[in-house]
Design goal:
Helices cover 28% and strands 29% of the residues. The protein is α/β, with parallel strands linked by helices and 258 residues long. The protein has a single domain, classed as 3-Layer(aba) Sandwich (Rossmann fold). The strands form four sheets. The protein has a seven-stranded mixed beta sheet, with helices on both faces. The chain has a four-stranded mixed beta sheet with strand order 10-11-14-15, covered by helices on one side. A two-stranded antiparallel ribbon has the order 6-9. Helix 3 packs across helix 5. The longest helix is centred in the first third of the chain and has 13 residues. This is Peptidase S51.
Amino acid sequence: MDLFLFGGGWRPEAQPFTYRRFVQRAGSGGHLKVAAVVAVEPDTDPVATFARYAETFSQVGVAPQDLAPVYVSATQPLTAGMLLDAAPTAVFVCGGLTPLYQAALCHDLSWLRLMQERHLPYGGFSAGAAIAADQALVGGWQVEQQGQQVAVAQEEAGEDLDLLTIRPGLGLVPFAVEVHATQWGTLSRLIHAVHAGLVESGWAIDEDTLLEVSDTAISVHGLGSAYRVTRGPEGVAVSIRVGERALTAQESARALRR
């Protein structure tokens, strides 16, 4: 299964390098239909949430009839039947509260088996990217050190959780996935998660940046960078991959006008 993991962000100039790559793969069989999965959050209008993604997809050439909303919640999780009704060529899991997306998507995996059987690509934005991991880092902004809770990220990035929290994910990648890396300071959270042994390794993705994962390679595209965090005999190591930009600025502007 081909994976397209988005670190968040809404800058239009990033879309030819990020969303367009996902759409090209989704329509590679000659037909395009993306199921956009939105988790219903308290005090949030899910229809408005879907509309924001629909506007973004329209800027890379996706017509309204080629994008189908699928609304889920912790009490109405995603099922294979919901996907069959949408008849998609790809699935795109939107962003929001990561613990909520984990509860709505990571318990009944019949829909995921259907995707794998049909070789459908998976796109995940922010929370949708984070839950792709085998062990998903769903939130928290503190770790326990010597009996005390120590901040390792901004409290606003904690997803309503205090301690770093790992929960079962979709198992699409063997590493943890962090998002909004530079913008929210979550790279440090991933470093501490690896250092504490909560996860073996991980990638932290900047906003407006795509981590593309196939069976044979990992590549980074977009305006920012992705950071690989691993643990070795001498401690935690971080390596940086700068996003590739296949288009010039002028080509990007023309692509967005099409």
